[in-house]
Write a structure and sequence with these properties.
The structure holds 2 protein chains of 2 kinds. By secondary structure, chain A is α+β, with helices and mostly antiparallel strands. Chain A has 2 domains: 68 residues, Arc Repressor Mutant, subunit A (Orthogonal Bundle); 72 residues, Glutaredoxin, CATH 3.40.30.10. Chain A has 10 helices and 4 strands. Chain A is elongated and about 50 Å long. In chain A, 34% of the residues are buried. Chain B is α+β, with helices and mostly antiparallel strands. Chain B folds into 2 domains: 75 residues, Roll (Ubiquitin-like (UB roll)); 151 residues, Alpha-Beta Plaits. Chain B has 6 helices and 10 strands, in the order E-E-H-E-E-E-H-H-E-E-H-E-E-H-E-H. In chain B, a hairpin with a 6-residue loop joins strand 8 and strand 9. The chains are: A alpha+beta, B alpha+beta. At the A-B interface, helix 1, helix 6 and helix 7 of A face strand 8 and strand 9 of B.
Chain lengths: 178, 238
C-alpha cells in the first residue's frame, strides 16, 4: 500500500499544473452539503445512469465534495459505474485536478513554466519537498505557467501570489505559516 | 470488400479496405519494426517504431494505425526512418534500467533484438536511472518496472482477450507506471485470473515467470493469434 502512495506522490509533483485549482477546491463547504456528501455523489452517478462514460464527471464531483479521492472512494465509484478499478485509478492519477491524498491546511503551488524554471523554481520545489514531507500541514503542487512571468519565480501560497521568491523568502513564509 | 493497390518499398501490393499498411507489409514479408503492436489485440501506436514515410505526406505515419489507400507509395526503411527508430530505442533504454546481462529475457527480448537490428552499440542520451520497484507478490509471475517500456500490450491483452482488465496505467509522462487494480500489489489483485497472457505478450523482461534465471525466460508470441482466431472464426489453426 505504501509503495503506490509514493508513486502517486511523484505523479502529483510532476503532473502538469492546473492554474486555478485552489480557489475551487479549498472553499469550505456549507455544513448542509458536508452531511449530504455521499448522497450528492450518489445523485451525480444516477444522473448519468451509472454509465462508465461519466467517470470523469463523477470523479470531479467526488473531488469537489471530499477534497481528495481515497482508495475506498475510487473502489466504490468503480463498482457503481461497473468499471475496472485499475482504469478508475488510471484516470484519477492522469489528471492533475484530482488529488489522491488529503490536502494539507495550506497549499503551495510552485510555477514551473519556462520563465520561473529558468529563474530557479526547481530549487524552490526542492526546499518544499524537503520541508513539507509526509504529515506536513502544507501540500506542495506544481503548475506549468500561471501567467505571471514578470514575477518569476512565482509561488502561489494559499491563493496569494508570492513574487521573485528565493529559497530564503520561501523558508520565511513556511516559518510564518508554521 | 474493395481491394486497394499500393506500393510498399517498390513492391506492388494489395490490401482490403480498412487493412493497415503494417498488416499488408508483414503479410508480404516486409518486416516493419514494432514494440507495441502484437497480432490479436487492438493497436494504439504507442511505440512509434512502425513509422513510415508516405509520398505526398509531410508527416510520418504510424503504419499500425494507417489504413491502406489506393495508389499509396510507402517507404518503410529510409535513412530518416532509421535515424528516428534508433533515437526512439535509445530513449527507451535511457528511460528505465534495462540491464540485459542480468535480465531473465536476455537473448529473447524484442527490445534487445531491435537494438541489435538497428546497430545500437551505445546510447547518446543521458540515462535516467529511476528508482523503481519489482513486484514479486504474485504466486507465479513477477513484474519488474525497471524493464517496462510502457507498450501497454499487457493492459490490452488483459482487457480485450482475458476480459479481466487487471492492468492499467498510473500517472502520465515519464512517471507512468503499469498498475494492477487500485495500485495494489499484483498478488493481492482480486481481478487477476493468473492466466499469464500479459507475461507472454510482454516484449521485454518486465513481466516474467518466477523461477527463471538470467536468459532462461522464453515467451510464446503465437498463442494469441490461435486464441483470437478460435474465438472470432471458430477455427483452431496451428
Amino acid at each position: 500500500m505504501e509503495e503506490w502512495r509514493f508513486a502517486i506522490q511523484i505523479a502529483a509533483f510532476s503532473g502538469r499544473g492546473d492554474p486555478t485549482p485552489i480557489a475551487e477546491t479549498e472553499k469550505p463547504l456549507p455544513a448542509a452539503v458536508k452531511d449530504n456528501r455521499d448522497k450528492l455523489l450518489e445523485r451525480a452517478m444516477s444522473r448519468h445512469q451509472y454509465s462508465g462514460d461519466a467517470l470523469i464527471e463523477v470523479l470531479h464531483t467526488a473531488q469537489e465534495l471530499y477534497g481528495f479521492l481515497s482508495p475506498e472512494r475510487l473502489k466504490t465509484i468503480a463498482r457503481k459505474l461497473r468499471l475496472p478499478p485499475s482504469r478508475v485509478l488510471g484516470v484519477a492519477s492522469f489528471y492533475h485536478f484530482f488529488s489522491l491524498e488529503p490536502k494539507g491546511e495550506h497549499t503551495m503551488v510552485v510555477c514551473l513554466g519556462t520563465a520561473c524554471y529558468v529563474a530557479g523554481a526547481l530549487g524552490l520545489v526542492e526546499v518544499l519537498q524537503r520541508r513539507c514531507g509526509a504529515g506536513s500541514k502544507v501540500s506542495v503542487q506544481t503548475a506549468r505557467c500561471i501567467g505571471s512571468c514578470g514575477l518569476a519565480p512565482a509561488v502561489i501560497a494559499d491563493g496569494k501570489i508570492l513574487a521573485r521568491v528565493t529559497k530564503a523568502s520561501l523558508g520565511a513564509e513556511l516559518d510564518r505559516i508554521g | 470488400m474493395s481491394v486497394k493497390t499500393l506500393e510498399i518499398d517498390g513492391k506492388m501490393l494489395t490490401g482490403v479496405a480498412g487493412e493497415t499498411i503494417f498488416s499488408v507489409a508483414w503479410n508480404k514479408g516486409i518486416r516493419i519494426p514494432r514494440l507495441c503492436h502484437i497480432g490479436g489485440i487492438s493497436d494504439v501506436g504507442a511505440c512509434r517504431l512502425c513509422l513510415v514515410e508516405i509520398e505526398g505526406q509531410k508527416k510520418l505515419q504510424a503504419s499500425c494505425l494507417t489504413p491502406v489507400e489506393e495508389g499509396m507509395v510507402v517507404h518503410t526503411d529510409t535513412p530518416k526512418l532509421r535515424a528516428h527508430r534508433r533515437l526512439i530505442v535509445e530513449l527507451l533504454f535511457a528511460e528505465r534500467n534495462h540491464i540485459c546481462s542480468v535480465c531473465v529475457m536476455n537473448g529473447d527480448c524484442e527490445l534487445q533484438e531491435l537494438a541489435t537490428e538497428l546497430g545500437i552499440d551505445h546510447v547518446r542520451v543521458r540515462y535516467q536511472f529511476p528508482s523503481l520497484p519489482v513486484d514479486l507478490t504474485h504466486e507465479r509471475f513477477g513484474l519488474d518496472h525497471n524493464r517496462c517500456i510502457l507498450c501497454t500490450r499487457c493492459i490490452r491483452v488483459c482487457d480485450e482477450v482475458e476480459g479481466a482488465h487487471t492492468w492499467d496505467m498510473l500517472g502520465r509522462g515519464t512517471n507512468s507506471r503499469v498498475i494492477s487494480d487500485l495500485g495494489e500489489p499484483w498478488g493481492a489483485s482480486d481481478s487477476c485470473t493468473s492466466c499469464g497472457k500479459c507475461v507472454q505478450v510482454c516484449p521485454t523482461g518486465a513481466l516474467f515467470a518466477k523461477g527463471k534465471a538470467v536468459g532462461e525466460m522464453r515467451k510464446d508470441r503465437t498463442f494469441l493469434k490461435y486464441i483470437v482466431t478460435a474465438r472470432e472464426k471458430k477455427q483452431w489453426i496451428e
